[in-house]
Request: fold
Amino acid sequence: NEDFNEELSRITKNQRFESNKSSNLDGYDNPNPSAYIASPDAENGVVKCAMEADALLASAIQSESDGTLSFQLDRESYNAVIKGWMSVVSHLRIKKTNAYIANQMITILSTSIPEGGVNPLAPNLESYNYVFHALCDTRASDAAEKIEDLVKRMLKYYQVLPDKRSFNRILEAWSYYGGLNPSPQKSMIALERVRRALREMKSLYAKTGDENVKPQTATYNYAMKALDRHMMGVSNVAAGGGRDADTRETATYNYAMKALDRHMMGVSNVAAGGGRDADTRAVAEIALEIQQLLEEMLANYDVGRGDPDCKPDISTFMSVVNAWIKCGSDVFPEAPCATEAEAFLKQWQQLYEKTGDNDFRPSSASYMIIIEAWSKRSRFDSVAAKKAEELLHHAEHLSATNKNPDLALNVHAYTSVINAWSRSRDYNKAKRALKILRYMNDKYKETKDEMIRPNMWTYNSAINACAMCQGDSTQQGEALKISFAILKAIKASKKEVANHVTYGTLLKAANNLLPPGAERDAILKAIFENAKKDGQVESGILLQLRNGAGAETFHAITENKITLIEGGGPPTNAARTNGRGRNRPVTTVDEEKIPMEWRKALIMKKEDNGKTYTGCHERVCHF
Reply:
């Protein structure tokens, strides 16, 4: 028996070496693992090892049935094969196959001994945890229910108590419940099961004092992420449920947070007549519940004086930030997302300054996603753009004064602030965007830091801020001048080149900022000539030109080389029905008629990326 188990162990241990070998399984989704071995495009030693161990066990079982086996199989024999298949599931990441394998593992588990029997073949906690792990890795929508069914059997027939690994797998599996787009009803079930699992862990730990069932940080994190995932659907869901002062460990809490966070958005439509305000409150309550989980962890940890296993990690803190950000998504823009997220971020920074613990140091990513949240709110929030810029400079101050020395915001953060002003209703948005752009350029010249060097996204965003200016004629005139000054700066740059987005946005600026007439036509022509010279002409540019110049002028500027399809093509998102329910006319461009010389830069870019150029991306325009 020892020799047999040693051979099984040797085979499955080989999987860790085989998993480092290259394998191409992307094109396969066959539930039969043997298909991967037969495939000429895939050499997967992980699967081969598992099947070899499985075949060896099957042969021993047959010999035992025939009475020819010279030794007795035990649970370690079965565990070795189950562990081998678990490694396959972790390695393949192919849903249909992994679900098949996990079900086979359950079969092995249940047939190793009849339920209720007591002998050396009875599955132990290790046996079940291997299967739980595999079921979790399938990320199947029904994995949580299967795990809970197995837990019931484990308790009923073998009197085996789950440990923290078992509970963590349960919580993680509930975060996948319902698939990618779970229904509100499924989200409600998942949230309740996550909370129940935490209560059961607390109760079991309180009764037994067993460290193996003490919740951990990961449990909190999984609960947070489950809440976050279904946040948008929640409505009138009580955030309570009561939490006592039992000690909890970090890993278990992280799993629970992930599960709660993931199901946060899926329950908003279950409110009975609560209306939009009730939905908004419920969504905010879920975000608050996630933050309260963190606060509970901090209280138990007590800055190193309490339970060290309750110490939050970066994932825990980011779960709270992400929850508040998702709380204020486009569906619920009125929710206090950015305000609460920034308030929490400041508390997080104060905790780091107080403790000096690098595990509590706010990351650059946390600042950037909140800046982006303020940027998105600037469409309807008059102070959002200002808040985004203030947070940007606050982060710079923290870095400069060594209060958070590793805090380094990159070009994306600065560009998000420019976009915030672009989306705002501020009549001086063009000047504000130019000020940030100049600040970035000056800082880059001083530090030579490539992370803050303006790129084409930055330049184009600044031009767009000019194009969206809604002030008086003087302010709009200044905005147009600024847009051309930015173009001049691009051309003077040695590292950036104006692209089709640049010229399309300049055409939009001319259309928005100038009244129809000879002056606008002349400027549109000049912009188009520059785009043509640079080989950057594509359908979006032509449609912007047509929108501003009119049909006759358009054909004159394009030398009658472009064919417009007036009202042609299927309606798209940009061609929504008008108030009378009729489709608005859609104008498209016959891309085959765009001269190759006019789009040479786009062709070269496509070829550089290893792709064949098949025309420009279609855009639509209304008249």
User: Anything to note?
Assistant: The chain has 26 helices and two strands. The two ends are 82 Å apart (CA to CA).
